[in-house]
């Protein structure tokens, strides 16, 4: 068979609740030098992927996998393909160092098949250097060879699909905070989110070995307080409705907000409550992407943490293999700590994928589910 049907989920870039299921033909005989056809095995899906869509124009996420019209040249006006993280198998290859059947992990489109152009090929993986891919960071372009990945575990694929990209942010954010922290009370908003949980676990569990004096405090909705406390990742947990309790016995403390929610009202409330004691604000994510008021980094004197930049820095300083080994060690410890708090949930076929996307968009998908998504 020389022609492959690529099933693709397209999203209206201006009205995110509008979706189309589109089929595009890919002729294997048309592959050019160094091009590789990837077949999506499975991918994870969570609020993180909705953030990619919500910030698609602002951060450039729509540029990775442009939706193409029937002629495969012009972009489909107004529609895009949401990026996901997943496993894929090489279906066809025109690169001498990439073999058919090889399994990789990386940044994929919400599509059953996709053509990339392989470059920077190394034992640990390769990158997509296709001219159609408008990348915002080389970190997003890397595909890791599972056979050479120290953190890959066939029996834990659901965890890697759903946590790896998020825990990678946690891993480098912890590294960044540990380098700068001076005994502050670290406030993590959206404390039940996977990225915040991972960051909190790393900060708390390494506090003693770092001889650090900071405190790790989670802020979350009332309905999630018990779940966040049970995780054991935080020193203390407070609901958004009980922020006044933060200052009950620490009026002279300095606070550093690590914001994963992007809810301007919450940040303003904290700023009013803590005043000058809120010494730093770092913006990381946007779990509350529907919030009517967004934070203004300039007014808040806040910094924006871009994880790929920190990944690139540490990969350059440590080397790729050492970086992956350090990450794998941290990841194993985290997965063991919270393994009983999540469950796997399968979604198969374009109807199920669209339904999961819309449920996550509306905030009705279970937060404890590790979604394993397949096209067939």
From TrEMBL:
Pfam families: DUF2855
Taxonomy, superkingdom: Bacteria
Provenance organism: Alteromonas marina
InterPro entries xref list: DUF2855
The name this protein goes by in its record: DUF2855 domain-containing protein
């Amino acid at each position: 068979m020389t022609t492959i049907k690529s099933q693709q989920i397209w999203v209206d870039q201006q009205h995110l609740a509008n979706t189309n299921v589109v089929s595009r033909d890919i002729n294997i005989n048309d592959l050019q030098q160094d091009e590789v056809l990837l077949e999506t095995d499975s991918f994870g899906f969570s609020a993180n992927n909705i953030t990619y869509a919500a910030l698609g124009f602002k951060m450039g996420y729509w540029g990775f996998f442009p939706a193409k019209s029937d002629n495969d040249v012009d972009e489909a006006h107004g529609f895009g393909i949401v990026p996901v993280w997943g496993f894929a198998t090489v279906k066809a290859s025109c690169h001498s160092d990439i073999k058919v059947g090889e399994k990789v992990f990386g940044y994929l489109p919400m599509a059953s098949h996709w053509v990339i152009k392989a470059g920077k090929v190394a034992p640990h993986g390769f990158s997509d250097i296709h001219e159609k891919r408008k990348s915002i960071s080389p970190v997003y372009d890397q595909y890791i060879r599972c056979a050479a990945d120290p953190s890959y575990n066939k029996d834990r694929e659901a965890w890697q699909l759903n946590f790896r990209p998020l825990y990678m942010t946690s891993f480098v954010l912890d590294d960044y905070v540990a380098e700068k922290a001076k005994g502050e009370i670290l406030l993590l908003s959206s404390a039940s989110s996977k990225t915040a949980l991972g960051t909190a676990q790393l900060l708390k569990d390494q506090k003693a070995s770092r001889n650090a004096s900071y405190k790790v405090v989670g802020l979350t909705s009332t309905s999630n307080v018990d779940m966040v406390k049970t995780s054991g990742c935080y020193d203390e947990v407070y609901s958004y409705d009980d922020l006044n309790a933060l200052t009950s016995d620490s009026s002279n403390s300095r606070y550093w907000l690590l914001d994963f929610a992007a809810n301007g009202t919450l940040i303003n409330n904290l700023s009013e409550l803590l005043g000058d004691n809120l010494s730093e604000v770092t913006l990381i994510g946007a779990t509350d992407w529907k919030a009517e008021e967004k934070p203004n980094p300039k007014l808040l004197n806040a910094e924006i943490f871009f994880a790929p930049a920190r990944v690139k820095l540490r990969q350059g300083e440590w080397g790729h293999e050492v970086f992956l080994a350090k990450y794998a060690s941290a990841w194993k410890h985290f997965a063991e700590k919270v393994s009983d708090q999540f469950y796997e949930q399968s979604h198969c076929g374009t109807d199920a994928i669209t339904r999961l996307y819309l449920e996550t968009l509306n905030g009705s998908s279970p937060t404890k589910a590790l979604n394993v998504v397949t096209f067939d």
